[in-house]
Design goal:
With about 325 residues, the protein is α/β, with parallel strands linked by helices. Helices cover about 45% and strands about 15% of the residues. The protein contains 13 helices and nine strands. Helix 4 crosses helix 10 and helix 8 packs parallel to helix 11. The radius of gyration is 19 Å and the shape is globular.
Length: about 325
């Protein structure tokens, strides 16, 4: 299959066998990447064994204090010349050899259709890992369904916040559009993918959810871990009202909790309802506090966040 150059960017921290599996899977793809760039945080924590059997992989090292969700990815994008940029996390394992091909096809579909809004980003379906808990497994299916979808501004009324949904766990971007809109935020606590997807939608582009492109990726977070993650999510939305004030996130979260509860009852797992309520409560509390972070004292913010380094930079830039 003829294709334009596709470069892969993977931020790395304490790599393990999942990264090795990911790199080997990229080598087997039907559409092969032109280059693979690993941006590793802390040189002494990098194990060269994860590169065994791979080709076309370059590694650069940065300090932990230099890492930023948006800024680090943008720095890596500027180092590569490919017409398309594929971002992955180190724990996203391709489900087959057609991952890159399917994502690339999503852009071709957008060009050949009658849509006025060209596809500028495409993200993959995330499947649960074998050790994934029941509740998280259902959450995967709720957020990443079996049907592909091309989302534009016309979908805001029906899809709400999901119109902006995109995940750099596995997402491909057309470089020309990425650069035209300024790329990812240079300094962001979290959610750089949705912030940029929001810009795409607002500027007349489309975002494709490609269900045929699949990676294995899931986490078994505790209630407290959910709290920290959702605090940072709330902060990211509060810092970008130009994107997130257009739609409400809470209604989609409530719908997911309700549908998960129905699923648990119908599958005779009602005994997991207390766990669902416990985790959902932590999520909601973290999210609401994050949205109101400007009213919180600094000591409390540092207790709530999962990204303490972000607040060091905030202090340097003059946060009151």
């Amino acid at each position: 299959m003829k294709h334009e150059e596709i470069d892969v960017i993977i931020p790395v921290y304490r790599p393990d066998e999942k990264l090795h599996r990911l790199l080997l899977a990229l080598e087997r793809q039907t559409v092969k990447p032109s280059r693979i760039l690993l941006v590793n945080t802390e040189r002494e924590l990098f194990d060269d064994a994860c590169l065994k059997g791979t080709e076309h992989v370059e590694v650069i090292h940065i300090r932990k204090s230099e890492f930023d969700h948006g800024g680090t990815r943008h720095m890596a994008a500027e180092m590569l010349p490919g017409a398309f940029l594929l971002f992955l996390t180190q724990d996203a394992i391709p489900a087959d050899d057609c991952l890159i091909e399917r994502l690339y096809e999503a852009f071709a579909t957008g060009r050949e259709s009658d849509r006025q809004q060209p596809v500028a980003a495409a993200y993959a379906r995330q499947l649960p890992m074998p050790d994934c808990h029941v509740i998280e497994r259902y959450t995967r299916s709720f957020n990443y369904g079996k049907e592909s979808l091309i989302k534009t501004a016309d979908d805001l009324e029906t899809l709400g916040i999901k119109t902006f949904f995109c995940s750099n766990v596995c997402a491909m971007y057309r470089r020309s559009t990425y650069e035209a809109l300024g790329g990812f935020e240079r300094h962001t606590i979290f959610n750089e993918d949705m912030i940029f997807a929001g810009k795409l939608i607002q500027n007349g582009y489309a975002v494709a959810y490609c269900a045929e492109a699949k990676v294995y990726h899931s986490h078994n977070y505790s209630g407290l871990q959910q709290f920290h993650r959702n605090f940072d999510l709330g902060v990211s939305q509060a810092e970008h009202p130009e994107i997130f004030q257009m739609v409400r996130s809470e209604s989609e979260g409530i719908r997911m909790v309700k549908q998960t509860a129905v699923f648990l009852c119908h599958s005779k797992r009602g005994y997991l309802l207390p766990k669902l309520i416990w985790q959902s409560g932590w999520k909601y509390l973290g999210y609401q506090l994050g949205k109101r972070y400007e009213k919180l004292p600094e000591w409390l913010i540092r207790r709530c966040t999962m990204s303490p380094g972000y607040w060091e930079h905030q202090n340097e830039s003059g946060r009151q």
